[in-house]
Amino acid sequence: MAKVVERKPLSFLEKTYIPQIVGGLTITLKNVFRPKVTLQYPEERPPIPQGYRGIPALVKDPHGREKCVSCQLCEFVCPPKAIRITPGEIAEGSENEHVEKAPEDFEINMLRCIYCGLCQEVCPEEAIFLQGDFNSLVGTTREEFVNHKDKLYELGGTRPDEHYKWDKKKEAAEQAAAGGHH
Amino acid sequence: MDWIDILLKVVFAFLMVMVVMTMAGYSVLAERKIASWIQGRVGPNRTALPGLSSIPVLGPMLVKMGIWQPLADGVKFLFKEDPIPGHVKKFYYVLAPMISLAPALITMVVLPFGVYYVDGQAMPLVLANVDIGILFILAVSSLGVYGIVIGGWAANSKYPFYGGIRSSAQMISYELAMGMSILPVLMWANGPAGGLGDLTLYNVVTSQQAVWLVFWMPVPAFVFLVSLFAETNRMPFDAPESETELVGGFHTEYGSFKFGLYFVAEYAHMIIGSAVFTLLFLGGWQLFPTFGILPDWVANPWAGWGWIGSVLSVLVFIGKLLFFIVFFIWVRWTLPRFRYDQIMNLGWKYLVPIALACIFIYALIIAGWDLMVAVENTPAEVVQPDGQVVTQQEDLITH
Amino acid sequence: MQDFFFYLFSALTVLSALLVVVNPNAVNGAMYMILSFIGMAVLFLLLDAFFLAVLQVLVYAGAVMVLFLFIIMLLDVERASKVRPKALSTAAALVGFGLLVVGLGYLFLGGGSVTPAELSAAPEIPMQDGGTNPMEFATASRSFGYGLFTKYMLPFQVTGFLLLIAMMGVIVLSKRLGPSGQEEPTTEAVK
Ligand code: SF4
Ligand code: SF4
Fold it and tell me: Do the beta carbons of residue C1 and residue C17 sit within 8 Å?
């Protein structure tokens, strides 16, 4: 049922708008003296919440080994195809010889990346992370927005590792070679 | 007239243009700053000049205040590409922004902005103290509308055109109310307050020594103020450029320096308008009204101070002016825009009749006053434009 | 100096007045008309008739021409400019022009012009300084007021009355459109 809302007719003063205008002016005047909400960005930074998805970057483990094994899962899963990996082999005689593979080049095109975090989720090596920080991306050419491997490692830095999966594997292999008896 | 005189006038005119244009530039800054404050933001606080901004404490402070922002804005407007769209009427398109700025700068000629003393005789600081000061201002500033109308028409597309049409109707409507709201002031200044039948703004100011007219004639002052908002296209009345309906209104098709001209013109009109309001209703450069009880020096404490006094009077005038500019900005960021039919209603159905009623009522009061005080027998002192004082028997009424 | 300005601005006035007639584009015509009004105002200024000059700008350039432009822009200018005048109106215009030429010739050649002395006698205002300037009457706005409210009271009132009648006529005409009529014409009507 339609409800009829009774409206009081405007009084004379209200019809002149003047009290309302004065009221509005006082509100805006009060606002002038309120604390400002602006964040002075480059100097002040907003608190970044847990789980914030920042720029995807590659990380090294505490021993300085690059964790990515260029399995190319992330390249495959990336929805906008922002990642391009050139796989490479780890040279024989290197300390990490047993890992066998590492990316020769690793490109993430930041003009394409949509910060979905799928690469981080899919990586079996925990080698790629969307860092919990943001960097403003500025550049004048398209090339500047393509992060290459060295840049990615620079951004990523090292992360604590819980598993040392490859070290364990190496140890196990060495023990087996030494005539282990399990 | 000597050529030195002419040269001097030219120099003064040039200075005044510089002052007004600088003020216009800085009112843009004020607009941005105050808008930010009202909205809880900080406003422009980054632009730095290489040398000056590295002065220890002062430099960063000025940068924070955004002092250099208008400079950067100006430079930007100057060096931006200035495209002329293919479909515009070129000649008028280029002409229009100039037409809108020129009247504001011309009206300054008759604006008295201070006072100086020659042998104890007060003289206005003004480029041309012509008899018809206020009419001159009304006439020339009414030409400013052509800038908008022609700009809107020359842009040859529909939103600017709407803007142009709206502004022409709006300006004509409010000019009437504005002109009529001034009449009581002129009657007062030339009647009981002792002036002698001229329309100089200086006369109006001196007649306000006892009481500023904003106290004695609040209603005409209000009508004038509202019309001023409408004439300068400021916020509650900015239908000609209402961003939400007409993109940018009459200047939609304008860019870079031409847009800058329009922009500055709006502020220049605002400054001139505030100046006129200050002169007509706020006692011009006088410090305080005497209200008939305080001693006379309250109004002009600097009477005997030579050039320092002149400077002080100019500063007081500019202070009142700034208050009004801030008020304009404050209102802009408070009130929503009137609808177009509301603007027309307000103009024709309220302000014009109110102004007419004011003329009538104040005419009655002033006539009554004249009858009681019997002005016809008091000698009136007239200051001729050349500075000599003529004392004459006022016999206009008995004639 | 004064002569130079006089010739400059009378040339401007006459030339732009001519262009008003000749120009086929209505908006251009209106602009030339404004220019010619302003030129006229400057001529008044050169005669020290500040009041008249300012009124010229205020009323004609500032208000009337804005309305003209308003109308021209609202109407379809392109089509209107192609209409050729009828033979009758051409003839009427020619007759009017002829009369104007005769009148001007009479003023210039036939001694019909008014001497400055006669002019200064017109409003008989008490002069402040003994009336040394024969054209003084035109300079001060108060002499206008004085003249209008003493000697020319009747013509002044009659003119006001005429304007009132015209205004009422326009209101009646525009109201006949009925409630469906546009609201636009009322703005002009009140003017
Ligand atoms: S980052 Fe992870 S998922 Fe991507 S190639 Fe390297 S190991 Fe594979
Ligand atoms: S975050 Fe998403 S879009 Fe960006 S690189 Fe990783 S998978 Fe691709």
Answer: no
Asked if A100 and A69 count as a contact pair (C-beta separation under 8 A), the reply is yes
Looking at residue A125, what DSSP letter applies? T
Which CATH code for domain C1-80?
1.20.120.1200
ipTM for this prediction = 0.70
C138 touches B at CB < 8 Å = no
pLDDT top residue among C176 and C22 = C22
Please judge whether B333 and A28 are an interchain contact, meaning their C-beta atoms are less than 8 angstroms apart. Answer: yes
**pLDDT at position B195, please?**
54
**Chain B contacts to A (CB-CB under 8 A):** 34, 36-42, 330-331, 333-335
Does A85 contact ligand 1 (Cβ within 6 A)? yes
Burial of B117-143, coded b for 16+ CB within 10 Å and e otherwise, reads beeeeebbbbbebbbbbbbbbbbbbbb
Cα A74 to ligand 1 centre (Å):
6
Ligand 2: does its nearest atom lie under 6 Å from the Cβ of A115? yes
Q: How far apart are CA B19 and CA B390, in angstroms?
A: 35
pLDDT above 70: residue A54:
yes
Answer whether A36 sits within 8 Å of B42, measured CB to CB: yes
**Among the listed residues B237, B111, B226, the one whose alpha carbon sits nearest the alpha carbon of residue B177:** B226
CB of B171 less than 8 A from some CB of C = yes
A26 found inside a domain: no
C96 band by pLDDT with thresholds 50, 70 and 90: very high
pLDDT of residue B64: 77
Supply the pLDDT for residue C98. 93
- Quickly state the pLDDT bin for C191 (edges 50, 70, 90): very low
Report the number of distinct structural domains present in chain A. 1
Q: Which residues of chain B are modeled with pLDDT < 50?
A: 377-385, 387-399
- Closest by CA to B199, choosing from B249, B252, B133, is B133
User: Is the pLDDT at C109 greater than 80, yes or no?
Assistant: no
| Residues A90/A91/A94/A95 CA torsion (nearest 10 deg) | 20
Other Cβ atoms within 10 Å of C147 Cβ, number: 17
Report the nearest-CA residue for atom 3 of ligand 1: A123
Confidence of residue A79 (pLDDT cuts 50, 70, 90): very high
pLDDT at C127: 47
Closest CA–CA distance from residue B23 to any residue of chain C (Å): 26
Within-domain flag for A24: no
Give the residue among B15, B17, B14, B22 at the shortest CA–CA distance from B71.
B22
List of chain C residues whose C-beta atoms are within 8 Å of the C-beta of residue B344: 187
A172: in domain? no
**Which chains have at least 3 CB atom pairs separated by less than 8 Å from chain C?**
B
B163 touches B108 (CB < 8 A): no
Residue C161 has pLDDT above 90, yes or no: yes
What residue ranges do the domains of chain C occupy? Answer: 1-80, 140-191
Give the separation between CA B130 and CA C51, rounded to whole angstroms.
10
Residue C114: predicted pLDDT: 58
Chain center to CA of A68:
17
Three-class secondary structure of residue B156 per DSSP: coil
Phi and psi torsions of A84, nearest 5°: -135, 125
Query: DSSP states of C168-181 as a string?
Result: HHHHHHHHTT-TTS
> Nearest ligand, CA of residue A83?
2
A80, part of any domain: yes
**CATH number (domain holding residue A67):** 3.30.70.3270
pLDDT band at A136 (very low <50, low <70, confident <90, very high): low
Q: In sequence order, which ranges of B66-193 are alpha helices (DSSP H)?
A: 69-79, 90-107, 133-142, 144-154, 158-190
What's the pLDDT score for residue C163?
92
- CA distances from residue A83 to A72, A75, A105, A122, A124 in whole angstroms, order as listed: 9, 5, 11, 13, 16
